Structures are given as structure tokens and as C-alpha cells.
Amino acid sequence: MAQKPSIPKGTRDFSPIEMARRNYIFDTIRRNFRLFGFKQIETPAMENLSTLMGKYGEEGDKLLFKIQNSGDFLKSCSDQELMDRNLVKLTNKMCEKGLRYDLTVPFARFVVQHRNDLQMPFKRYQIQPVWRADRPQKGRYREFYQCDADVVGSDSLLNEVELLSLIDKTMKDLGIRTAVKINNRKILAGIAETIGAADRIVDITVAIDKIDKIGLENVNAELREKGLSESAIEMLRPILTLSGSNEDKLQIMTDFLKDSEIGMLGIEEMRTVMNSIDALGHDAEMQVDISLARGLNYYTGTIIEVKALDTEIGSITGGGRYDNLTGVFGMPGLSGVGISFGADRIYDVMTSLDLFPENLGQTSKVLFVNFGEKEAAASLGYVRALREAGVSAQLYPDAAKMKKQLSVADADRIPYVAMIGSSELEQGVIVLKDMRAGTQQTLTPQEFMQLMTND
Question: How far is the C-alpha of 365 from the C-alpha of 362, rounded, in Å?
Fold first, then answer.
């Protein structure tokens, strides 16, 4: 008995209606990317591991899908190394490439590699799949799409404001009520400095980034495991549970970080961004969240995370400033800031909240019933004329029973069914059935074409 086919865990097939909904999301995001002046690029699905490793922190490196070398992938491994079964060492010798973990690091590589062809500041957008060897669960997949917008070559905080405005408009267009959480990596560095743990900034950010998932006490336990002192943990505790207005939080942090130069710079940047986006106006809730860390090592300034208000699904958009990213590819000093829309999670949010337009499953505007060879030939002439006019139309391929043909129109949400039988052929008319209203009328060819092209 043949084995039943399947797909890898954390991946999915998509039906026609699912693709229609996904494309609705992609088209909305793409339209707004272009509206804000971003240009599209694409990069390969796989990158050299040397490009990817070390850019996402220790935890991120573990989630990279590595691609086995083609041919004799063991040729560089000695018998002793195989006997030792050192997985990390063997993997480094057997794998030279990996699937991209995100779109930001490949973009940094792209900028450095094509620097002589780019006009700065450079605004790019990119909509492609990424892969992470994560444990699959609701809202978390091993293969998923990201929709990124980045600006490189400008230090201006107006870029952050523009990206926040882009997020706000896109979520409004999709009908999703959101809370946009904002922090600054410099504030986190200032906190680490103030509590006497400046050298533990990575451990601190990786731990507190999990606060929504595991809670404050578990975060504190992890910090203890990393060697943070009890006094430092106690100083950190009230900071991670701040409440009040955005200005209240910033004032408390101003007092807390008054002796930290980098921390005060972060406060200044945060105030500039928050005041500017508030002055511009927004529909989303803009929230200062000092516990927001986004545990990726390359962020250096503003960090952003977006959550839907009406569902329990996690972050659906995130990003931030990464001043030092291109430096690792030999191009230091180039500032960048970007965001990434999580299209798959946005899809799950919109599905759970029933936010998709009803007509997305519609394949054509009109289906012609097939009554036989002569009638089908006449119908094909109208199908061609409609398509030339930009109206989606099709002819049922077989002269099947009427009930079966109408059921296809109904299943595909086709609003009109056109019928040219032998008597209609003789009279030179078309019977048009409105599938939504359940009514039908007899039309001349001119009346039919006018209705189809104007409705």
C-alpha cells in the first residue's frame, strides 16, 4: 500500500480561497509600500551561512535551516570527526548555505554588494518567504512570508515616524485594530548600565523579550541563571511593569536613567518619535513599552512591535533601527531602519475576526452555460469580447447537466450565469441569470455587454 503523501510540519498548502485572501493581504501591503515611496527587490531563498550566522544571536542561529552540500558532503570530514559526532562541527563542514531566516540580513548583504548602484537614502520593500527551524504551533510556522520595508542611508527619526504611519494605514486598510508597542534599544542599554549589568545587555534583552510568553517571574529566573545579581533583578522589576500614560512612563524612565548618557539619548529619541506620530495622527494605539526588547542583536535604536487588539495571536508586525548591520559586511556607518509585516499571522487574525471581503472567492464575473457545440462557439465569442473589455468570463467546458453547471457558478461565487441555447441562438439574444438575486432577464448582445462592463 502506497504511503499517504504529506508535507513537513510547520508548512501548509493553500487552497484557491486561501490564496485569494493571502493575495488580498499582499496587495494591500504592496499598495501601501508603493504609496510611501518604497521600491521592490528580491534576494535568493538561500544565502551563504557566513552571511546568516551570528546576525540573530545565539538563539536565532539555532533556528537556521542549513542546506547540506551537494555531492560528497562528507568529503571535508575526517573519520575521527565522524566518530566524535560533534554535531556543530560536522554541520559547519557539511553545510555552506542556509535558508534565509528573515529578509533584513539578506537586504544588508544586498546593499553592500550593490552599493555602487544604489542612491542613498534607499527605500526598499520585499515580499518573500523565510524559514525558521522553530517548534510549530498556532500562529508560528517553519515557512512563512514576510513583507519588509526598510530605509538605509539616513539617520533621521522621520523614517521611524513614516514607518509607524505606514503600519497604521495598512492595518486600517485591512480592518485590524492594533496596539503598536514602541521602545528604544538605547533605553535598554541605559537600564543595563544603571543596574550595574552593562555587559549583560544581550542576556537581559533575550530574557525580557519573553515576558509576554512566560511572565515576569520566569524572566527573573532566567536572568538568575544567566548570572544577574538579585539586586540588579530587583532594580529591573518595577521597570518591566510600568503603567500609566506614555508621558508618565517616559518621565519615570528619565528619572531612572538620569546618570546614563546612552539611556537619556534613547529617551530623547523616543520622545521625538512619539510626539511626531501623535502630531501626525493615527488610528492605532501607540504605546511606550519598556519591556519590549525584540531579542535580535542588530537593533540599536527604536524598536517596534504590533499586536492585534481583538485576538490572542502574538506579534503581527515588528521592526526597528539597526545602525550597525551593514558593518559586518564591510560597510560600516550606514544607518538603517525597517519593519516586517507577518503576512501569515495577519491572515490568521483576519480569518478569526472575519475581516475578508465576501467576494474574494469569485473566480469570474460571468459563466456561460455549455449547451452544445454551436452554442458553445457563440458563447466563446462573447467570452473573448468580455475579456478584451477587462471582464473576467468563462465557458463551462462540457455540455453537462444544467444543475451541475449552476452548482459550479454557485461554488465559485460567480454572480452571473449567461445562457445561449438553441432558441437564444436563433433569436440573437442572451438569457442572464443573477445568482445573487435569483432573477433572470433576456438581453440583446448590446444590452448584455453594457451591463457586464458597467455593473
Answer: 7
Which one-letter amino acid corresponds to residue 417? V
pLDDT digits (tens, 9 = 90+) for 28-85: 999 999 999 999 999 999 999 888 888 777 778 888 888 876 656 566 666 566 565 5
Please list the residues that pair with 137 across neighbouring strands.
140
What is the C-alpha separation between 179 and 171, in angstroms, rounded? 10
Amino acid residing at 260: S
Nine cell digits for residue 336: 538603517
- In Å, how far are 421, 423, 446, 453 from 438, measured between CA atoms? 19, 22, 22, 20
Burial of 10 (0-12, 13-18, 19+ CB in 10 A): middle
Q: What's at 80, amino acid-wise?
A: Q
Domain boundaries, the chain: 16-352, 362-454
SS3 417: strand
The neighbour count for residue 255, using CB atoms within 10 Å, is 8
Q: Is the pTM of this model over 0.90?
A: no
C-beta of residue 173 within 8 angstroms of C-beta of residue 33: no
CA-to-CA distance for 377 and 398, rounded, in angstroms? Answer: 12
- Backbone torsions φ then ψ of 370, nearest 5 degrees: -95, 110
DSSP string over 136-154: PBTTB-SEEEEEEEEEES-
Please count the other Cβ atoms lying within 10 Å of the Cβ belonging to residue 124: 21
Query: pLDDT-derived band of residue 305, with 50, 70 and 90 as boundaries?
Result: very high
Q: Is 27 exposed, middle or buried (0-12, 13-18, 19+ CB in 10 A)?
A: exposed
Between helix 158-174 and helix 261-280 the angle, nearest 10°, is: 50
Torsions phi, psi for 119 (to 5 deg) = -95, 125
pLDDT in tens, 343-354: 988 998 999 999
DSSP 287: E
CATH of domain 16-352: 3.30.930.10
Q: For residue 181, how many C-alpha atoms fall within 13 Å in the half-sphere facing its CB?
A: 18
Looking at residue 269, the DSSP 8-state letter turns out to be H
Pairing mode, if any, of strands 366-368 and 393-395? Answer: parallel
Comparing C-alpha atoms, which of 269, 290, 349, 289 is closest to residue 317? Answer: 349
**Interior CA angle at 115 toward 112 and 116, to 5°?**
150
Q: Please give the backbone phi and psi of residue 236, each rounded to the nearest 5 degrees, phi first.
A: -75, -30
User: 275, 265, 319: which is closest to 104 by C-alpha?
Assistant: 319
Contact 286, 182 (CB under 8 A): yes
Is residue 106 reached through a cis peptide bond, with omega within 30 degrees of 0 on the bond before it?
no
Handedness of CA 110, 114, 119, 120 (dihedral sign): positive
CATH topology assigned to domain 362-454: Rossmann fold (3.40.50)
